[in-house]
Write a structure and sequence with these properties.
656 residues, mainly alpha, ABC transporter involved in vitamin B12 uptake, BtuC, 2 domains, two-stranded antiparallel sheet, 6 strands, 2% strand
């Protein structure tokens, strides 16, 4: 019993940390409708600011105030960039821009204070309280008490002050709030500033709990806080606290009684179960599931995440039509150059570009054609890679059989991946796929009998073609050529999908699932097809990744890979096969072009991504094409009709 109580207290302590991080997500999403993926980096930076201020000789409370000032300044800057500056961007744009800012923050901390872990000052380290037969760490008690006090103060601020009432009014109905004289702009700045305070507090609590900090801690705690917010209800403060405590206690009990390797798995399994069984969260509401989705009152009714705040499909209407056969021709020419002219180094880089272009094509089929934003596609790519590694090292199968087996396995994985997502809508789709991606990564890490865990699987021989008499080659050019051939196969598959009634129905679902169902489209079967095809392309990319690297490990399929794939299709053009290919090659080559600026590479990468989101909402492939907007006016003073993209059938023709 004493052991159980000790695990319970430990779980409540770390759960209090998750609750604080989750509150930052809830506040920002409630008012700005932005999923702030930089929240974890704000926690990390807050911890470092406290550490620095403590080094100046300041006591912990004063060091915390210094961290609050820095974190609030950063949070307001995030609001200015990701909300105000981006303007009427697509719904997914703020998500990716906050992710880009997270890259910038993390790399800046590495440059300023090094990548090495730092010892965090904790005056209560090693102190214990004895309660009967139970010894409880004083740090755990302080963390729980501090979190309780701050949650109480935040509750009073939001319920008993004019500022708090303005924030709550803006969260409930921004249009009605404006009509009643509430300035929603300052309300958004306020919630971001409060998220900065919570980031600083979370940083202090994390540092005290683990007694050390490092620049990589932001993403894990951001994801756990995100999971806690969704488990409890992303529009409920009480739900965020409940979700954080539940995840913390479940992790602690799992680590104590099942095994520490399953500790991190608990949070994302809980998140997935809650999303499937109660998508609004334990204490949330279904306020965001009606017409207009998360964009609230006054928006044109649509469920598309590719639309802006007025319902205008900004990432679609400016898309330039580029026939798939042109893309295939360009791919062939680039492949010839990569295998004949480019040196071995750039040949390998272009092979990586072809691999990620294949995976990006798959994500384009899903997100670009159906509007279902996936933040877990790295796991599907990992399934193809691990399957290839196992069958090649154990069975020495020829390439043709490996390819067929990867297609079959990926089809099954895609259907399983789709099953918990099909009934969801809006932001919950992205969150469910994020949970699936993290679960996949953690299974790669912990199923040691199958994946060999952190050691990975090496010794993967290059492709051997039975149709060529068992021919193989160990040269870089040979491998690059095979990567481009697989990319061409992927383009052929996409070309087949983008023709006919299947394409029309998928795009109808993208524009508005509710309207598509009203027109008679059977949504679930078509979505399952899209998930399966997307998974096949991701699996083929994983297959070539395993061949090209001759080694796979869990670190190759972190959640950052899923973010990278999503960034590629947004940067190139989210609804265009050409956009997926161009975006992949550009974002694979960009870090290599910046190699001389090694220390600044990730910062420059994040800046370039934000600029692309801001100035090229339809992607690189639509440069020079004028995009009509809801604010454009014709000569008669009326809004001009947007020019439809040539590749986009009208949703009303979905199914006669």
């Amino acid at each position: 019993m004493a052991e159980f109580l000790a695990q319970l207290v430990n779980g409540l302590a770390i759960g209090a940390v998750y609750a604080v991080v989750a509150l930052g997500f809830v506040l920002v999403f409630g008012v700005a409708k932005v999923v702030n993926f930089a929240q974890g980096s704000q926690v990390m930076l807050g911890a470092y600011l406290v550490w620095v201020a403590s080094g100046w000789g300041l006591p912990l409370p004063l060091a915390f105030l210094v961290a609050v000032a820095g974190s609030v300044l950063l949070a307001v800057l995030i609001e200015l960039i990701c909300v105000e500056w981006l303007g009427e961007s697509a719904e997914i744009a703020p998500l990716l821009s906050t992710l880009a800012i997270a890259f910038i923050i993390d790399q800046t901390v590495r440059l300023v204070w090094s990548a090495n872990p730092q010892r965090f000052p904790n005056p209560f380290a090693g102190a214990n309280l004895r309660i009967g037969p139970l010894y409880v760490g004083l740090t755990d008690i302080i963390i729980i008490a501090t979190a309780v006090v701050f949650v109480a103060l935040l509750t009073v601020l939001l319920k008993a002050t004019w500022v708090g009432r303005s924030v709550r009014a803006a969260a409930q109905d921004p249009v009605a709030a404006q009509q009643m004289g509430v300035r929603t702009g300052p309300a958004k700045v306020t919630v971001f500033a409060l998220s900065g305070v919570l980031g600083a507090l979370g940083g202090v609590l994390v540092g005290m709990y683990f007694q050390q900090i490092d620049p990589t801690m932001g993403l894990p705690f951001g994801l756990k806080g995100f999971a806690a917010a969704m488990v409890g209800g992303v529009v409920s403060m009480a739900g965020a606290v409940l979700g954080g405590l539940l995840i913390g206690v479940a992790e602690s009990l799992a680590g104590g009684y099942i095994g520490s390797e399953y500790r991190d798995l608990v949070a994302f399994v809980m998140l997935l179960l809650v999303l499937v069984l109660r998508p609004q969260g334990l204490l949330g509401s279904r306020a965001l599931t009606g017409l207009g989705g998360s964009r609230g009152a006054g928006a044109i009714p649509t469920t598309s995440p590719l639309a802006d705040a007025s319902g205008f499909p900004v990432t679609v209407m400016g898309t330039r039509r580029i026939p798939v056969w042109w893309v295939a021709l360009g791919t062939v020419l680039l492949g010839v150059l990569a295998t004949t002219v480019a040196g071995s180094y750039w040949s390998g880089v272009l092979a990586q570009g072809a691999i990620f272009a294949t995976a990006a094509l798959g994500l384009m089929v899903l997100t670009g054609m159906t509007g279902y934003v996936s933040v877990g596609h790295g796991a599907l790519m990992g399934i193809g890679a691990y399957w290839t590694a196992r069958v090649v090292t154990a069975l020495d199968l020829p390439f043709e059989l490996v390819l067929l087996s990867v297609v079959l396995v990926s089809l099954v994985a895609g259907v399983l991946f789709a099953y918990p997502v099909l009934g969801l809508s809006g932001h919950t789709i992205a969150l469910a796929t994020l949970a699936l991606g993290q679960i996949g990564y953690l299974l790669f890490l912990n199923l040691i009998e199958v994946t060999r865990g952190p050691m990975g699987i090496g010794g993967i021989a290059p492709p051997r073609f039975a149709l060529l008499g068992g021919a193989t080659d160990f040269s870089v050019a040979w491998m690059t050529g095979v990567c481009f051939v697989v990319l061409l196969l992927g383009l052929g598959l996409v070309a087949a999908v983008t023709r006919g009634q299947v394409s029309v129905n998928l795009r109808a679902i993208r524009e508005d699932r509710l309207a598509a169902e009203a027109f008679g489209v059977h949504v679930r079967p078509y979505l399952t097809i899209a998930f399966a095809l997307s998974s096949v392309l991701a699996g083929l990319a994983g297959m070539m990744f395993a061949y090209q690297q001759s080694y796979v490990s869990p670190d190759s399929f972190l959640i950052l890979v899923s973010f990278l794939l999503l960034t590629m299709i947004l940067a190139g053009g989210i609804v265009s096969p050409a956009g997926a290919v161009v975006g992949a090659f550009v974002l694979v080559a960009l870090p290599e072009l910046l190699r001389e600026q090694t220390e600044l590479r990730e910062i420059l990468y994040g800046v370039v991504l934000i600029l692309i989101i801001r100035f090229m909402p339809s992607g690189i492939t639509s440069l020079g094409r004028r995009r009509a907007s809801s604010g454009d006016q014709g000569p008669d003073g009326k809004a001009a009709a947007a020019e439809p993209a040539a590749t986009e059938p009208v949703p009303g023709g979905a199914r006669q």
